Model the fold of this input.
Amino acid sequence: MNPRTKKLIGLILFLPALLIYAGIVVTIADYIPNHWAVYLVYYIIMGTIWAFPLKPVMAWMNRPVDAEDD
Done:
């Protein structure tokens, strides 16, 4: 598969997933204690976690093209 096509497919998967995740994070933030230290830890953790489910998609997008993929 063409690298540009792979990146387009990855983008189509990535953007909606990231927007949904951000909505979930902000919604959950309404239920955590109202203290700056709690918010700091929460957003650091949640700002890091998003990458793990999307890591396979990013790896697939950036994998070199093999003769077998065509």
User: Anything to note?
Assistant: The mean pLDDT is 88.
